[in-house]
Specification:
The complex is a heterodimer of chains A (157) and B (121).
Chain A lengths: L7 E8 L4 H15 L4 H22 L7 E8 L3 E7 L15 H5 L9 H8 L2 E4 L8 E7 L14
Antiparallel strand pairs in A: 1-2, 2-3, 3-5, 4-5
Helix pairs in contact in A: 1-2, 2-4
Chain B lengths: L5 E8 L2 E8 L6 H13 L4 E7 L6 H16 L3 E5 L3 H10 L6 E3 L2 H13 L1
Parallel strand pairs in B: 2-3, 3-4, 4-5
Antiparallel strand pairs in B: 1-2
The chains are: A alpha+beta (157), B alpha/beta (121).
Chain lengths: 157, 121
């Protein structure tokens, strides 16, 4: 089994209450800047992380105030990995294909549901860990060598 | 609950109803934004500009509110534009498809010029 050693790491724990994702976002953004990522990439990360935390708060922990969302950041020479882990009252199973704007305007579904679409476009990699037994684990990855604009979402498992 | 402050203002300039949105656009902003839109629409607005200012945080719930505004704008035969977004949020608006339904301008003056060009075209 391959072991990855990270040169820097940070962990946060926030309550399942909307608004706390901003605190996690700002802390992770400061960490990413400290690790040398560009302002533009950090802006992408801020949006993606906020959306991932909102999903964990709303869908994973179902807004239960006593449940926590843990955010772990690990950085090495190649990449920054952020894992968002909820306590999974509900297994989050997002729709395979988010509705287009035209479909939403036609009233074919909820106006919400843009979060995963944004994450997929903003991050180099993102996805759920399908083997997680203790809640939903979602990861975001930014590579230092970012050469392709808006790489589609990939599951790395 | 950590409610972020959004300050919403309404004004008129050169025949355009300008809704200033200062602060975070999240789920907590829904009532303020919809109320401002209703007010300008009831006042007969044909051209509506959402003028973003100091917006550090616009999330998918905030975008959902704006999609709702686009729906109403289409229903009411109005014309919608947005201005003042950072480069990052301009990119986000394009990613989700909002840019197809509302012209994106760098600032208010450019937006007013855009409305003027559209009416004389």
């Amino acid at each position: 089994m391959k072991t990855t050693y990270y040169s820097a790491s940070m962990e946060l724990s926030i309550p399942s209450e909307l608004g706390y994702e901003v605190i996690a976002r700002d802390a992770v953004a400061a960490f990413a800047l400290r690790m040398g990522f560009t302002h533009e990439r950090v802006e992408d990360l801020k949006t993606a992380l906020s959306e991932a935390c909102i999903n964990a708060i709303e869908h994973g922990n179902m807004l239960a105030p006593n449940l926590r969302v843990n955010v772990a950041c690990m950085c090495d020479n190649d990449r920054l990995l952020v894992e968002i882990h909820d306590q999974g009252l509900k297994h989050h199973t997002p729709a395979q294909m988010p509705l287009s704007m035209a479909d939403k305007l036609a009233g074919l579904g909820s106006m919400r549901g843009m979060g995963l679409l944004l994450i997929g476009q903003l991050m180099d990699e993102a996805g759920f860990d399908p083997n997680s037994q203790d809640g939903n684990r979602f990861h975001l990855t930014l590579y230092r060598q970012h050469t392709v604009e808006h790489v589609p979402s990939q599951r790395t498992e | 609950m950590l409610e972020d402050e959004l300050n919403v203002g309404i004004r008129q300039r050169e025949g355009v109803a300008i809704i200033d949105l200062m602060g975070d656009v999240t789920t907590f902003a829904e009532e303020k934004i919809n109320s401002a839109y209703r007010e300008v629409t009831e006042g007969g607005a044909r051209y509506v500009l959402l003028n973003f200012r100091q917006n550090d945080y616009i999330n998918s719930a905030g975008i959902a509110i704006l999609i709702g505004i686009v729906t109403e704008v289409n229903r009411n035969n109005q014309k919608l534009a947005v201005s003042g977004l950072s480069q990052h949020f301009q990119k986000i608006f394009r990613m989700v498809g909002l840019a197809q339904y509302a012209e994106i301008y760098q600032d208010e003056d450019e937006a007013l010029q855009g409305f003027k060009s559209a009416t004389t075209a």
